[in-house]
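thought: fold this chain, then report.
action: predict
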Amino acid sequence: MPPSPLVNMLSGVRSSSSHVVRKGRVPDGGGVLLDESLVAPGRRIDFAELFGNARPVEVEIGVGKGSFLLARVSARPEMNFLGIEWARAYCQYAADRIRRAGLANAKMLRADAVTVFRSCLEERSLWRVHIYFPDPWPKRRHHGRRLIQDAFLDDVRRALRPGGQVIIVTDHQDYFRHIQAVLARAGGWATVPFPRMSDGKELVGTNFERKYIAQGRRFYSVARMRYA
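observation:
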């Protein structure tokens, strides 16, 4: 039987199951994979210290196999990137891909994104937050597990610089309605055009997007900018 998907029960982010790290083989993060102790009570991430420079920082939540992050990091050497992934195998795999590509402007962190944004990020420390195809948790009794909630969005806005953006894509219409309702309740956001993150016909170029394009699914996207 094929392996079942790894699901981030904490941060509501799907993890790709199309790549499996074989038993006994742990990819080498080579300095890309951060120590999980970085996420600790009372500890804030110092990006200037982490990257050795003061370049703007973008975060992707739910990196999976790392296809979007790898392309984005390669295309924007003037930016720094942090990928957050809960599934350990895929976090290690994405870190190894970045290491093998020789990209020095990206790090991977195996952590719960909700915890990171609530407790570990300085105010106005990020330029952009990417959230692509988060787990929709379709059953009503599981809606509380969805990543996009009022408190989480407040934490994202706090972490963004004025002018910074959050970009969200989903294939699930009901979840998109939920996201729109959360955004409508939130203050300090302005609607902005969705910035294309990939060449060609893709919106962002994740593995989930490519899979869903082949299945003929419709996508729902939204972008907001912090103005206050």
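thought: worth noting. Strands lie at 57-61, 80-85, 106-110, 126-132, 160-170, 189-191, 220-226.
final: tokens above.
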